[in-house]
Every structure is written in structure tokens, then in C-alpha cells.
Amino acid sequence: MRKLALSDEILLTIEKPARYIGNEVNMVVKNPQEVEVRFCMCFPDVYEIGMSHLGIQIIYDMLNQREDTYCERVYSPWPDLDKVMREQKIPLFALESQEPIKNFDFLGITLQYEMCYTNILQILDLSGIPFYAIDRTVDDPIVIGGGPCAYNPEPIADFFDIFYIGEGETSYFELLDLYKEVKKQGGSRKEFLEKAAQIEGMYVPQFYDVEYKEDGTLQSFHKNNPYAKDKILKQVQMDMADTFYPEKPLVPYIKATQDRVVLEIQRGCIRGCRFCQAGMLYRPIRPRDINFLKETARKMLKNTGHEEISLSSLSSSDYKDLQELVYFLIDEFRENGVNISLPSLRIDAFALDVMSKVQDVRKSSLTFAPEASSQRLRDVINKGLTEEVILKGAMDAFQSGWNRVKLYFMLGLPTETWEDIEGIAILSDKIAREYYTIPKDQRNGKVSIVSSTSFFVPKPFTPFQWTRMSTSEEFLEKQRFLNGKMKEQLNQKSIKYNWHEAELTMLEGVLARGDRKLSKVILEVYQQGCMFDSWSEFFRYDVWMDAFSKYNIDPLFYTAREREEDEIFPWDFIDIGVSKKFLWLEYQKAKEEKVTPNCRQKCAGCGAKVFGGGVCFEG
Amino acid sequence: MLVVVRKYLEEVSVLKVRVKFSKTGSMKFIGHLDVMRYFQKAIRRSGIDIAYSQGFNPHQLISFAAPLGVGLTSDSEYMDMELRSSFSSEEAMDRLNAAMNDEIRVESYLELEEGSKNAMSIVAAADYCVSLKDGYPLVEDFQVKFDKFLTQPEIIMLKKTKKSEKEINIKPYIYHIGFTAEEFGNKINQNIGKTVAEQYENGQKVYMQIATGSVVNIKPELVMEAFCQYIQIPFQPFAYQIHRMEVYADLQEDNKGTPEEYGKNRKLVSLEYFGHTIGYY
How many residue pairs from chains A and B have C-beta atoms closer than 8 A? Predict the structure, then answer.
């Protein structure tokens, strides 16, 4: 029988013990004594969220294909268990072997959103690993970070030995081979890091120094170790057919956020929305082969027993073989009772045909993400969606019997006016009015419109990386204004308005474009008890504000400040292919309300062509 | 936008089978609802030709006999499934077991006679083995004290349900007690076979057959709590590992009357009694 790290008594008194026992279907079992490298993958949030992440499943499967490596998993212990572990001094353990993380060679942490940063410190703390990379010894695992937030790793740079800048499939094997070699020769931690720093995409923060100007911006960013590279070039998986994909993903016992097969149909996006970081980071777009997808879908459904499959991409409608794939999935799997979920789909003839082919789509709702209400503002953000398309799509769907619509908007976009904000209420109402033009005997009861606003956060490597972000007070004012306007609409009873928390967004803004000065603030709030900041019930804004003032840091320096063209950004040492010059030109075009055609219409010369493939070389 | 294409299936149920499975090790931390989800996915992985309910959100036609609480292990859990077609019992068991981890094992797969009542509705009693976990204080003269505990004319306990609390006399619902597998087996006229129950070094344990199900439901925890009260030691809920050994139906269907009569007139058979093995066609 497997020996568990936690006693029955603990497991039976905490919430959801299944978070901590491992042994899920398709878990990889190896003898830790028989491998040379032990790697623990961590998603620093609660199990149900972490288990829903495709990236970890890809790397888990990939690393475990190596006989010399055992990749295991760990997630953030929920506060109830966290308390018990501290009281009883139980070290954090991996789910597979139930052995302490401290015994591992690597701790790989995926960085999916900024508000998980305190949870990283929780993981290190409970594992008994020193917070600061420079304090670690040969007894500690190499702590490596990756994922979207690694594209500005500076606020947490001091806590990591390495950041990997790129897609997981490409460089890990080289790193593990190097680790084995250095270990065999009895090399030191520093020697390993120096050699790792020579692998493309590997950033070792302690080999770089930062100097600041009087005003707090960067004076210079340069290496202090001859082995380090001047620029870190993003690593990209260019061959999307012959690569790793988990055919046997883990199936948790408790319901994860994504309780379904996730099939990534393509990576990257041609659209170039100016607020969207993923759209820039993952350039160029690379579709997967249709036959690979069909075969993988079949295997994954068979191996998981899930009753739903979801197609994943930034914009499904841009996948060239989408129709063939969707019709295949419908024909092949509907008899087996499989739901097919198609996110980010444009409403067009094809979408309507798919809807008409199935009897029961009425329960789900239509989702549109116009992001901004006016055409002017949508041109600013380069969101190629017109009001005409939204209204027609909604009407087509209404006529097919749908009556629920969800709309997503952002508040605080650059150049936004009060009219733009009011426009959100007007557009929501227009859609409801459209619905009521259908004769009463032909419509399906009342219409329900749910409009949600999030607050815009400028992100690194987007055209808006220079832009000023609104303050919390401004956000709240905008939201209150909009709430009032919603109440003035004819169909206000059919419209529900949801909004995000302004204070959480403000902090996200600080961390997104932050620098190394912030690491002490993050450590301070963690030591004051902050973690699970992205969970509103645990978020403690006042503790963060106290920490900023303790270290004399003005959070508005990072958010509510328009940057100069030539300002050195903390993330400038990373080269994502898309050039800073292109981003600046895009920012200027945004202010001129000019749109940029998508990659398939016309190459905008962003720079991603250097990767030598994808859409840049189509046709 | 997001579109979800929902499955749509016609309801065709051709036969009913009853599956018996064991549950042990870390699976004891998986609650009843998650075990149901686990089986739903395992059934799909195994290729069992399960029938679905009709309607907008079709679900597999499966139902469980008596939910097992979190923390308990079992040799005999029962699940009824309605199928469109079936493999032989042997192949179906192999397929299900290949689709699951080794802490839940299918032990039998039997076709039910047409018109059989579903497992949930017929549960009347169950056998349990309650073991003291290592690391907790032993009770001296455990057997003597337990026997004496049972000689009380009545054992009044406060029984809590979601809706109410009431005092009941649990004694008539404690049908048999034993301290070894052999002794207990003799009392209930069964051979106690292999078990997946965890064994503890201290060896202190008690077997019990008690009323279970929708008419009267006595939990083994309640019996242990009564015993601890009787010998005046604090009841520690985590001190005991409770293991279910078998679940029974009562062939005396209209078994009513006083608790004492109810207890005496019973004619218990295991839930497997109502099914037969499916051979190769």
C-alpha cells in the first residue's frame, strides 16, 4: 500500500483530501531510486486549478518519457492544510512519491498569473527551500520558472535560480542532460547555473545587475558573469505535428476546473489585438496537423473517459481546418455521449450550421468579447469585431432559439471616454432590443444579457506597455458610472452587470510591469500572511499597501505613469521575436485609431519571422 | 463566442447488471460523489456499453447501494448499471479493472433478473470490521467489556440526521458481534474470505452486523461511541478504521413490527444473491 505523507487524522479533518493523495488515473509511477533526475512540477494555486492546466500535463508527459527522469507534481496546499503543516512541521511533498520537495533536483514552477506570486513563497517555505536563490546550497533543488509571467520575471527574479523563456517542449532535455553531466563531475551549483545560462532561453537572474536612475526607472541592465547571454531569445516549438502531446492526461478524483479533454488546435494568434500579451508572446501562429488532432482526440477521450472535449486556441475560427475537425468530432463521438466545446468561435455560417445540427445547444449561452463598445475604441485596440457582426450574430442565434448572451468588455483602455463607457450599456441594450424584434410566438421566453467588465492592465510586450493604467479610484468611478447607465436602459431588467475588483487589478498592474525592487514587498506581504491573493476571500489589500510604504515604494510608479519611448523596461533583455520598434509603432497607430491587418491579410513586419515558420511562411 | 455541442442519446436499456467492488488504501479519502464520477469515467474508458437517460443532459444509468462515508474502506460496495449490451462477466470485470487503479477493484459483475429492485432500495444490513489504529491507546479486556456492554437491556443513543436529533435504542439493531473472523463467520453463517481491510499490529478489533439502509440505519461509529461511553473513555473518531465487509438485503420484504421483531424475522442475503454470471455468448 502507498504510504501517504499526511496521516489519516489530518486527511480526514481538512477539506478535499483528494488534493493531496495523488494516485489519479494515468499518474506515472516510477521508482525514485532508479532515476537520475527528480523533477517536481508546481502550479502555485489550489489543486483543482492546477490540474486544469494543459501546459503542465504536456511537460509531465514529456519529462516522464525519459527513463532517467521522474517528473512529479505539487500544488499549493489550501490554507487549512497549510496551517497544519506549519504547526506539525510537515515538509511539502510531491503527490506521486509523497516525498519531500526538498529531495528533488528541480522544482519547476509555472507562472500563469501575477497574483500567484505569494503562493510561490508558500511553496518554497513549506518545502524548506531558502526564499532567495543566492542563499541556496547543493541540498536545495534548482528552482526554475516558466510560463507567461516569465516574460517579465523581474519582481520575482531573486527567488528563482533560472527562468526558462519559451515553450516547454524545446529546451528541457538539454537542461536535464547538462544537469546530469555536471552532477557526475561533482560540479557546484554555480557551475551548473553558468553552463545552463549558455543554453538558449535560460535566464539566470543572479548573473545580471540592475542600476536605477534617480526617478526609479532603469539606468542599465547588464550581466555580471561572462557565461551569461546579453539577450535571452524566446524558444519556440516550430514543428507542431511531431512534438509532445499527452495522450494519457491525468484524471483527478475531484472535479477540476477543466473537467474535460483539452485539444490545443494551434498556438499563437494572427489577430494582433493591442492589449493582448498572448497574441504577441506566441507569435507566429502555428496550426497543428488535422490528422494529428483527430487521432489525439480519439486517444485522449479513450484514455480519460471524459465526456467533453474542448478545442483550445486563442482564436478557433482562424484554424484553417476547423470545419473538418468539428464535423469529425460530432460524427465520431456524439454517439458515445461526448460534448464538444468550441470556445473563441466567430458566429458565421459555419457556427450556425454546427448549432443547427445539434438538438441541445440552447442551454449554453452565446459569448462575445467586443472588449470595447465603440468602433473608435475597438480600432484603438485593434479588435476586428464590428457592431454589425455582433448584432447579426446575436440575431442569428436568437432565431435559432438562443436567449442568453454574455458580453465581455474592458474598462480603462487607452483613449477611453465617458461615451465609450456609456456605450457598453447601450450595446447591451441594443442586443436585447434585437431579441424583442422577433415576434413573441417565435421567441424562447425572455432574453438574458450578462455584461462583464474587467479593468485593463497594460502588459509587457504589448503595444500598450508604455501606457498609463488607471488608478483604483478611476476604475471605481468608471464602474459606478457604467452601473448607473445600465440602470437607465430600456431593457435594464434583462441585463446583468458584473465587474472585477479594482484593488486586485491595481496590484496585478504593479507586478505585471514591475522590477526587482518589488521582491522585498512580495516577501514582506507573504511574511504578513498573504497568499492565495487571487482569491478575493484571502486578498488583503491593506497588507500590500503597508508593505509598499514600509519600503518607500509608490505602486503608482508602476501603474499610473505614461512611459517615454526610450525608457529601458525591466523585461527588455528578453527577445520575443516581435521587436520593441514594432510595438512602439503599433502604440502610435493605436493613438491614431488606425487598425493593423491580421497576419494572413498582410505581414505587419513584427519580427516574428525570425523563427522561420508558421504563418510568416504560408503561401 | 463559446458553443457547446451537447451529446444527445436515445434511452435504450436492455439489461441490468450489479457490480461489486472493493475500496481501500488512499481511495478511502474519496467521497461518494467523487466515486460516482470516478466510475462514470472508468465505464467510458472500459468500453462498457452503458445506457444513458434521456433529456437535455443525458447521464449514465448507474446507481449505488449504500454510500460509504469518507475514511471507510470496503470489500463489498454495490453499483447497479443499465446497459445497452454486455460483455461476459469475466471480460467486463477485466475491462473495468484495467481502466481503474488498484485501490478500487471490481469483484463481481452479475446480470440481474428482469424486474429486480435496485440495490439502493433493498439494503437492510451490513457487516463491518472496526479496528483500532496503531498509535491509539488499547482498551484492556476489550472483549470482556464489549460483551458486557451488549448485555445492557437497552443502549440509548442520540441519533443525529440532517433534519433532526432523536434518542433511539440501538441494541435491537446490533445483530451479531464477533472478535475474530472465524467466530463472526460462524455467527452469521458465512465464510469470511479474503479482505482488503488494513491490518494493524495491535490486533484490537470487533466485527459487527448491524441494520443499514433506508428503514433503519445504524452507523458502526455510533456503536463504538456507545461502547466508549459505557466504559467511560473519550470517543476518538479517528482511532478506529471502519471497514465494510458485506451488504445485505432482507428477503422478508414486509418485515415490520417492533424493532425486536424486525431484527428477529430478517432473512438476510448478500446483494449478489439477485444476480447471475454472464457467460460467453
Answer: 132
pLDDT in tens, A489-514: 999 999 999 999 899 999 999 999 99
pLDDT of A180-202, one tens digit each? 999 999 999 999 999 999 999 99
Of A500, A496, A475, A366, residue with least CA distance to A421: A475
Mean pLDDT, rounded, of chain A: 94
Asked if the structure places residue A328 within a domain, the reply is: yes
pLDDT at A362: 46
Instruction: Evaluate whether A312 touches A268 at the Cβ level (below 8 Å).
Output: no
Residue of B nearest to A340 (CA): B5
Give the residue with greater pLDDT, A444 vs A167: A167
CATH value at residue A603? 3.30.750.210
Residue A158 and residue A222 share a domain: yes
Cα A168 to Cα A86: distance, rounded to the nearest angstrom:
33
Distances (CA, A) of B74 to A23, B67, B68: 18, 11, 8
Evaluate if residue B255 carries a pLDDT over 80. Answer: no
Residues A215, A279 within the same domain: no
Residue B9 has pLDDT above 70, yes or no: no
- The ipTM value here is 0.91
pLDDT at B129: 97
Decide if A57 is inside a domain. yes
Alpha carbon distance A560, A510 (integer Å):
9
CB contact under 8 A, A21 and B70: no
Among A255, A303, A345, select the one facing B3 at the smallest CB separation: A345
Residues A34 and A126 in one domain: yes
Question: What is the DSSP pairing of strand A162-164 with strand A202-203?
Answer: antiparallel
What residue type is assigned to position B213 of the chain? G
Give dist(CA B13, CA B63) in Å, integer.
14
Residues forming beta bridges with residue A308, ordered by sequence position = A339
Domain with A355 in it = 260-360+577-619
Nearest CB to A338; choose among B7, B37, B40: B7
Alpha-helical runs (H) found in A171-321 = 172-184, 189-196, 277-281, 290-304
The answer on A226 and A355 residing in a single domain is no
Give B167-206 pLDDT, tens digit per residue: 999 999 999 999 999 999 999 988 888 899 999 999 999 9
- In the CATH hierarchy, which top-level class contains the domain B15-120? alpha beta
Q: Is residue A280 part of a domain?
A: yes
Domain ranges of chain B: 15-120, 122-272
For residues A228 and A275, membership in a common domain is answered with no
CA distances from B101 to A23, A217, A363, A548, B74 (A): 8, 56, 35, 50, 15
Distance CA B143, CA B145 (A): 5
Q: Are residues A206 and A304 in the same domain?
A: no
Yes or no, beta carbons of B30 and A393 under 8 Å apart: no
Of A4, A255, A341, the CB nearest to B4: A341
- What's phi and psi for A112, nearest 5 deg? -95, -30
Number of domains making up chain A: 2
Residues A144 and A37 grouped into a single domain: yes
Could you tell me which chain B residue has the CA closest to the CA of A317? B1
A296–chain B nearest CA distance, Å: 15
Angle value at C-alpha B101, between B100 and B103, nearest 5 degrees:
120
- pLDDT band for position A361 (cuts 50, 70, 90): very low
- A364:B25 CB<8 A: no
Please tell me whether residues A279 and A172 are part of one structural domain.
no
Quick one: average pLDDT of B67-87?
Answer: 95
Give domain status of residue A55, yes or no. yes
B4, B5, B221: which to substitute to probe chain A, counting the most A Cβ within 10 Å? B5
**How far is the first Cα of chain A from the last one, in angstroms, to the nearest whole number?**
58
Give the DSSP H/E element, type plus range, for residue B117.
Answer: none
Confidence of residue B210 (pLDDT cuts 50, 70, 90): very high
